[in-house]
What does this fold into?
Amino acid sequence: MLSPKRTKFRKAHKGRIHGKAKGGYTLNFGSFGLKATSPERVTARQIESARRAITRHMKRAGRVWIRIFPDVPVSQKPAEVRQGKGKGAPEYWACRVKPGRIMFEIDGVSREVAKRAFELADAKLPVSTKFVTRFGEED
It folds into this structure.
């Protein structure tokens, strides 16, 4: 699973995800992409699960690019612990995804294979998504 090698701080504020994606909203590597249409936190496990679904459907043909990286530590308190006594320990890594962000890109396969692969990946992700192509059409 993806996680940073090192960070400046161990714990982060929760924050809110406002507005549209400032960058990463165009296809840069592949011919087909999976674009987020809603704001959400995507965990490292969800990214890995979606990646596996894509590569399995493509039968390891073509190439996949992951355009998001989980760099936000999410902390949790243990079960049945009283309030107070500080913030919980970091449990997992997440990525804040804004609407318009391209999350995955594919090249080297047909449009039908790419579309089905992204449908399978969409089922693993908490964000609503859209299939985009290099030629401008969006479904």
